[in-house]
Amino acid sequence: MSDNSFDPRAFRRALGNFATGVTVVTAASADGRKVGVTANSFNSVSLDPPLVLWSIDKRSNSHEVFEQASHFAVNVLAADQIDLSNNFARPKEDRFAEIEFEPGEGGSPVFADCSARFHCEKYQQVDGGDHWIMIGKVVAFDDFGRSPLLYHQGAYAQIQAIQLSVLEAKQA
Q: Residue 44's domain spans which residues?
């Protein structure tokens, strides 16, 4: 093991070698305040019950709404939605200005043209160091089958299909 195990920047760079999808997670408070954050920490947890998770920085201004909301939505972005990802990744007064959305479960905003959407009832919030791990029970989902937006080594990426030769396929 290298001696950089305690260097947060080196640790983050090493984590960047794991390619992920890109999501925008949204919620709405009881008084109608809408929040959304770009997150690549989305993952499945369980099929029975259907659970997913994502994490949010404890310093995030949006956390209070996510903590109080009964539901949240995970919008899995499609390859052509880089602008939408950037909109929710950067500090901004109103991230929903000029963004088309419709209300999902619990009023959580959902976006058109995504790869998939997961409508979640908040199930559990777990302390995860400098982040909160948000677990949701999926109450509905939409699978649009669009090619997803990826994130790898600090940059956006797209899926490139790898074609195996007939010989390689027979050996597999």
A: 22-144
Q: Give the model confidence (pLDDT) of 111-145 as tens digits.
A: 999 999 999 999 999 999 999 999 999 999 999 99
Report how far Cα 126 is from the mean position of its chain's Cα atoms. 17
Residue 104 lies in a domain: yes
Q: Amino acid identity, residue 150?
A: L
> What does the alpha-carbon distance between residue 133 and residue 51 come to, in Å, rounded to a whole number?
12
Maximum C-alpha span of the chain: 61
Pull the structure tokens for residue 107.
């009023």
pLDDT of 165 above 80: no
The gap from C-alpha 63 to its chain's centroid, in whole angstroms, comes to 14
- Provide the CATH number for the domain around residue 80: 2.30.110.10
Phi, psi dihedral angles at 140 (to 5 degrees)? -165, 155
